[in-house]
Each structure stands twice: as C-alpha cells, then as structure tokens.
Amino acid sequence: MRDGLSVRGHGQSLAGCRLKVHDIIDRLTVLGLDPDEAAVYVHLSMMGPSKASDVAAAVKLHRTEAYRTLQNLVQRGFASATLSRPAKFEAAAPERVFDDILAQQRSKTDNIARAQGEIADALTTLRTTQEPAASRNTFKVLQGRREIYTVAERMLREAQEDALVLTTHDAALAMADTAGLLDLVLKRAQEGVRVQALVRCTPTNRARLEALAQTPNLSVRHLEADRIMRFVAVDGKELLVWVVSDPSPRLGSEEDVAIWTDATGFVGTQQALFALAWAQAREVRSMPDARGVVPGTRGNG
Fold first, then answer.
1. Pick among 3.30.70.20, 1.10.10.10, 3.40.50.2300, 2.40.50.140: CATH of 6-94
2. How does pLDDT run across 258-275, given as a tens digit for each residue?
3. Which CATH superfamily does the domain covering 139-286 fall into?
4. Strand locations in the chain, DSSP E?
5. Which residues are paired to 50 by β-bridges?
6. Which of 286, 290, 289, 273 is nearest to 166 (CA)?
7. What pLDDT, on the 0 to 100 scale, is given for residue 207?
8. What are phi and psi of 297, to 5 degrees?
9. Is 149 helix (H, G, I), strand (E, B) or coil?
10. How far apart are CA 264 and CA 137, in angstroms?
C-alpha cells in the first residue's frame, strides 16, 4: 500500500464507529483483500458510486492499477459496476460481503471434514514400490481476457532471458496499454529481458510502434496476416497461445480462449515458427503512416 493514500490518510473515525479508516482497511485484509483492494473498497463505501479515475485519484493509484483493483473487487463480489461509459463502481453492502464469505468458509470446512472421513485413512495406508512417474507436460485452458492477461502478466514478470510476443489483433496495442501489459513489457526490456514483438502495424499505430522499438532490448516488426494470431512465449519454457480471439477491443471480453503450456517440445516448435516469421517480417519504419507516407521518403509525389 502506498504511503499517503487519502483514504488511509484520514485519521477520523467513521460515524457511529470507534475504528479509524486506516484500522478498517487493515482489518479488511482478513477477508483476503490486499491493502490496495481494501482501501478502494473503503473509498467506495464512503463515497458511493465512483468512476475509476476518481478512485485512482482518491487512493493515489495509477489508473491501470486502480481499474485492475476495481475489476478484482467486482469479480469477487465486493463491488458492482454499471454498464455506462465510463463505468461507475459501487461497494457491495458489508453485511452481504461478510455473510457470503462466512458461508463459503463453512462450506469449505464441511467439504474438508467430509474428505477426511472418506479418504484420510486410505491415504495413510497407501504404499507404492513403483518408480516415481515422469513429470508430465501441463496444458491449461483459460477463458476470458482478464484471466488470460493475468497469466501473460505473470509470465512476462517472471521472464529471465527473453520473451516472444505475436499479435495481429488490431486493438492489441490499446488493450495491452489499458491492462498495464505494455508498461510491463517496457520495464522488463529496460531490465535486460530481450523482447521481440511481431505486430500487425497499421497507419494509426505505426508511430507508437516505432517509438516502442527505440527501447533497448525491445525489437518490433510488422507481420502481415489476414486473421488474428496471438501468443506469448517466455524463456523457451512457457507458451500462452490464443485458440479463440474476439476481434472486439473489449478488455472484459469472455469470448477469448487460450491455452497455457510448459510442454517444451511444443514451445520450441512455436519459437521456430516465430523465427521464420520474424525473418520475413518488415521493419516498422518501412510501413506507411496515417498519411500513407513512409517517413524518410518524399511520399507519392
């Protein structure tokens, strides 16, 4: 939690309650909220329906961090969002929040007790003389952009040597910017991770892509394709590949489906295909801008 958050900075007690605001934020962490989520939930409870930009200013979070925190609260039932643009977020009633969490905990406790009665003794007596099974390659199916972007963020954050990014989605740059992935890619490149990005360059995003390509360790090339292709590969060990991709720019789309895998053979195959595409791809600076002119040339006449 950042120092100086205006919500946390209030030393006053809430009406009818001896606890100060920062005490309430601290206590909310027992519900599984991190300090930022707790501060945002308290702000919504105090101020009522609020836009993401207002929340970001109030609790002193970056716009993308505030939006991500609000979405987390919505997904977990601590808040709701309107369908208007811009959306307004409202805190769920605390009575319902606590009742729901207590009910979940009771259900979890009952399930554990049931499992203990059914299988604990059997597990205790199990013995095997077989050699440990060889580790298996893992494949996980991910549904919805938020879940997929969360995995992509984790992969990029943990990258040690290199990251390969391929996307021909027209809104990919804007979505990555909104989700905070673009800032993360720039940060990792500046930290020494070698990033290669094959992106469909358009007249509207050309200038931005060329500016990104000026970052040390970050190379960007144009890939011409008539269909959406997207994947992220890290260190030759992990691959995230989209198998269904919604063409819309909605960050909250649930239509996207991706597969994450650590199957090194499959990861290596995709890396080899990426290398072939990279060798044939064009430099972004050779692509026309919004005027149809390639900078550095005299244009069409």
1. 1.10.10.10
2. 999 999 899 999 999 999
3. Endonuclease Chain A (3.30.870.10)
4. 50-51, 79-81, 88-91, 139-143, 162-167, 194-199, 218-222, 230-234, 238-244, 257-261, 282-283
5. 89
6. 273
7. 85
8. -115, 175
9. helix
10. 8
